[in-house]
Amino acid sequence: MSNPAETITKMFIATDQRNWTAVENAFTEEVVLDYSSMTGNPPSNVSPHLIIQSWQGILPGFEHTHHQLGNFITDENDGTAHVFCYGTATHFLKDQGGNIWTVVGHYDFDLTQQQDAWKINHMKFQFKYMTGNGQLPEKAMARVKG
């Protein structure tokens, strides 16, 4: 059985590879998703399908994405786990205004053990800063829409 940090790492690798089935399998049936520090939107309870649907609306519009995680601190307790880690997401799209948009912050994850796997049931991103071409997200979404 994998450990909680490995589940998180594999989920982000699958995201960068656009392996949406593997992404979905990393989550419980309902997930608390909290990007409020970056978006201003309140945390919400969502299905993995809605998370993927949202990510599919932007990420495939980039030529490449690269999620890099580190500084994992894991606390396991009777089938549950809390994982803290740093996260940097680099997004690449050729553009005259600059090819790179990078978001930096840290994550707090809660996971639960289900059968032989750890599943993410809470994902909170704490935004620190972004750098690069801030127009790339809008351009990536336009590329997805075609």
Describe the protein in words.
The protein is of the alpha+beta class and 146 residues long. 29% of the residues lie in helices and 47% in strands. The chain has a six-stranded mixed beta sheet.
Features:
single chain, 146 residues, alpha+beta, six-stranded mixed β-sheet, 5 helices
Largest β sheet strand count, sense and barrel closure: 6 strands, mixed
Q: Residue share in helices?
A: 25-40%
Order of the strands making up the biggest sheet: 2-1-6-5-4-3
Amount of beta strand: over 45%
SSE order and pairing:
Blueprint: H1 4-17, H2 20-25, E1 27-34, H3 36-39, E2 44-46, H4 48-56, E3 64-77, E4 80-92, E5 100-114, E6 117-132, H5 136-145
Parallel strand pairs: 1-6
Antiparallel strand pairs: 1-2, 3-4, 4-5, 5-6
Structure at a glance:
By secondary structure, the chain is α+β, with helices and mostly antiparallel strands. Helices cover 29% and strands 47% of the residues.
